[in-house]
Amino acid sequence: MQLLMAAIGVVSVLLIGAEVQAEQVSHNTLTSAEKADGWELLFDGRALDGWRNYGQKGEVEGWRAVDGLLSRFGEGGDIITDAVFENFDLRLEWRIETGGNSGIFFRVREGAEAAWHTAPEMQVLDDATHPDGRETKTSAGSDYGLYGRSRDTVDGAEKWNAIRILADGGHLDYGQVTKTSDGPDEGIYGESVNLVNPVGDWNTVRILVEDSHVEYWLNGVRIVEYELWSEEWERRVQESKFAVYPEFGRARRGHFALQNHGDPVFYRNIKVRRLPSRLESSSTPQ
Question: Fewer CB within 10 Å, N or C, the chain?
Answer without folding.
Answer: N
